[in-house]
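Entry:
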Amino acid sequence: MSHALIACLLYGLAAFAEIAGCFSVWAWLRLGRSPLWLLPGGLCLGLFAILLTFSPADHAGRAYALYGGLYIITSLFWGWAVEGLAPDAWDMAGAALCLVGALLILLAPHGRT
């Protein structure tokens, strides 16, 4: 599997875990769900942090920047799958732009020869 594909899968899993964890708080405070929703949410947020440490990036800041692009795309798909709000053309264009930026950060030589 290629370096970029492994990174994308890792960041996709991390994004799903973070969104699920944050959604548990949203469900509790905004949708009136039980505070018990916070228990799996906390586990998801812990999993997110652990997954992000396996980033192929050399530095944490770069890892978080790479992750941001995949997070945006995953957020749009979460909204579609969980909340029923399909992304429109503007959402998809913005997500594509972010993905290109994330891939540029991942694949650029960054001063390496």
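DSSP finds four helices and no strands in the chain.
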